[in-house]
């Protein structure tokens, strides 16, 4: 074993040395103490969390010459051979390289033979999900009713790929990802033993980059030790790991919330060249989550939170549905980073998409009055809640007399996510002779994925009947549900402003302080 590698040097040799898996360790220890040892165990979880290590420790507890106990001696030949990886009765198999059914059958043929020097013969199959279907079938019967001297320990990162027949025959232990605090504490202990100096903030950066994996944190730590020559400084590690200053990330988010693409791109251009944009997007996703909670109730977010100033400043400027849209766009973009040759370009396009998907009417925007149908009236007293009462509700049958009010219809089609957003920026023309026209705002062309348009058309056909023909057209100045909502919101603000201007007390304040009314502040209070 190469003890120069931290992940190997500090690999646990006893249950009490395992980090961050207290529930699993306690359950295994109690089962050993009570003599309740099952014939098959499955350990699952993300990489680097100790699945194989815990399986080896469990095997050591079963094979120790001093007896079956949760705390093996660690000194007998069995314990030492397991630590060095050459115990004859602990057969470790890499399923990724032995996927064929013939390999599994040959393995199962040897199950019947007694262990060479121990009380049990233990099969530890790593990455068991890589086995083929035929291999699982060959393994199934033996796992269900193995000889008394055989135990199976399975480890996998993808338990959902295992057949239900295998899962149902194993005791399944799901290893949780380590928290940032646990990783930091673990790194501190190792650095003290290795006698390296470090700054606390440097360990926070390493822990955040590890994404909950103990082994990954040790690999990153080794790289940082080499880069910093044994003295871990935060600024150097921040540069090495491509970490972006949190103030710059908050500046990027503020640009999105304020719909300012120029400032957004300028802020992104200030990021270092070696930045990990996928990690930055993960931070942004977390901030959107906190922003949503703060919007619902500020008490859901601690006043000590790192981003509290950003949340307080902008939670009133953004709608909850827009935050949900931003969150979905950001989450969807993570999986596409691997397909992008230029990560920065993909990062910019993702954030620009958030702005483009929420471009409602602003102060200077207007819709020509001649395109507003006579059956839709906009009143300054309308609110988003009573706007539905202004919409047409004449429901007719599919044979030609059918519902014509798209504003109401979209809420009956069971839409969600980007498909609902597309519907809110579209209109549906009258259906004639089994055909209709789906009009989409021209400025939204080529923005939505094709799957959104297909899903919307399918929902319309499901509602009216599969025989209906849908023609898609892109037009300007459409009176879409999104436009109606924004117009009514603007009228509501204007109405509030008129009332404020007529208030004698407000007039006195204006005259005395030579003050003006901030219309934007009115908008904040009406959200």
Task: Tell me briefly what this model is.
This protein is α/β, with parallel strands linked by helices and 527 residues long. 48% of the residues lie in helices and 9% in strands.
Keywords:
9% strand; 5-stranded parallel β-sheet; 527 residues; alpha/beta; 10 strands
Would you write up a description of this structure?
The chain is of the alpha/beta class. The protein has 23 helices and ten strands. It has a five-stranded parallel β-sheet, with helices on one face. Strands 8-9-10 form a three-stranded mixed β-sheet. A two-stranded parallel sheet has the order 6-7. α5 runs parallel beside α6. The longest helix is centred in the last third of the chain and has 21 residues. The protein is globular and about 95 Å long. About 9% of the residues have low confidence.
| Radius of gyration, whole Å | 31 Å
Biggest beta-sheet profile: 5 strands, parallel
Which sequence of strands runs across the widest sheet? 2-3-4-1-5
* Helix-strand category: alpha/beta
What's the helix count? 23
